[in-house]
Amino acid sequence: MQQNKALIRLDHIRENAKTFSALAKGGKLCAVVKADAYGHGAAMVAQALASDADMFAVALTEEGVSLRCAGIAKDILVLVPPLSESEVRRAMYYDLILSVGDAQDYALIARVLKQIGGCVRCHLKVNTGMNRFGFDADGFRKFTEGRLTDRIAAEGIYSHFYRPENEQITHEQFLLFCNFCERAEQTFGKLTKHIAATGGVLAGKEYHMDMVRIGIGLYGYLPGGFSEKEVLLRRAMSVYAAVAAVRDYRGGGAGYGDYVPRGARLSVIRAGYADGLFRKGIGTNDLCMDAFVSEEKREKYQSVCILSDAEAYAKKYGTIAYEVLCKAGMRAVREYVDG
């Protein structure tokens, strides 16, 4: 088979979800399956977690629509506020929960709903230091004192820790978030409050609140600043490729670049940067788009594991496991194992 194989352990994802549910101690679990579940396949992951997750979170409206079309009936929160009228319509039709991060988001949603006569649910996004999306304090005060519509039902409020490994910064963000929550609930009544993602859960139980959002932790990894000493997780993805050729070294290089092999025997692995690997070699040759040359002794047609630890691979290239996982399954056929 020309395509690589990404082996996904759904049972490991489920075990990781249960681990974080236990840490949350009664709080709701929001499973983050954006970016096709970090490369693991959003529909299959969501179906596997149907009994464990209280809510799913995606980045884009279309991702939420895809989950609905895959039969996911639970609440789905769209993390990026809508950017067009069509997104609002689709969110209403598919019963997605929209994020509202400023007065313009709210006005867009209200205008569309007035035109078509519908209603949507939303969670309010507030800025406590990430400076990505969300109301600032002054804007939020004006918003809550302004004209609101019954067509938009606010059900939750959330923010995001930008350095959960830093105790002081995280605590300061949390106090600011609590101020937002107090004002929001004076206007909208009881809301589901959530600020802790994977790192926030490990930062302290006081941050768990009503719900925790678990993304990278579901797939067996932790954000920077946290270690497996704090929680034991199971990796969910391994990627395999075939040995496409075995040959004797006849001079020259080994793939692109000026790298000269040390040995006389080379094998060609059918995986390259178009398959989600990084092109630049570290201590070896650069990858080609669709293959790379290896000095390890292999047999032609042999299946080789090219990725099992995204964290270790990421460290070699100065990045994070998130990026590796999102790319690792490119052009790969996913094979799911459950139990």
Entry summary:
By secondary structure, the chain is of the alpha/beta class. The protein is built from 11 helices and 14 strands. The protein folds into 2 domains: 10-219, Alpha-Beta Barrel (TIM Barrel); 237-337, Lyase, Ornithine Decarboxylase, Chain A, domain 1 (Beta Barrel), CATH 2.40.37.
Order of helices and strands: EHEHHEHEHEHEHEHEHEEEEEHHE
Radius of gyration from CA coordinates: 23 Å
Q: Structural class given helices, strands, pairing?
A: alpha/beta
Q: How many domains, in number, for the residues?
A: 2
DSSP summary, beta strand count = 14
The dominant shape is: elongated
The proportion of residues in beta strands is 15-25%
SS field, number of helical segments = 11
Low-confidence regions: none
- What is the CA-CA span between the terminal residues? 25 Å
Using brief descriptors, characterize the structure shown.
single chain; 339 residues; alpha/beta; Lyase, Ornithine Decarboxylase, Chain A, domain 1; 2 domains; 6-stranded mixed β-sheet; 4-stranded parallel β-sheet; 22% strand
SSE order and pairing:
Layout: E1 4-9, H1 10-24, E2 28-32, H2 34-38, H3 42-48, E3 55-58, H4 61-69, E4 75-78, H5 85-93, E5 97-100, H6 103-116, E6 120-125, H7 137-145, E7 152-158, H8 167-188, E8 192-194, H9 198-203, E9 211-214, E10 237-248, E11 265-269, E12 292-294, E13 303-307, H10 310-316, H11 321-328, E14 332-337
Parallel strand pairs: 1-14, 2-3, 2-9, 3-4, 5-6, 6-7, 7-8
Antiparallel strand pairs: 1-10, 10-11, 10-13, 11-12
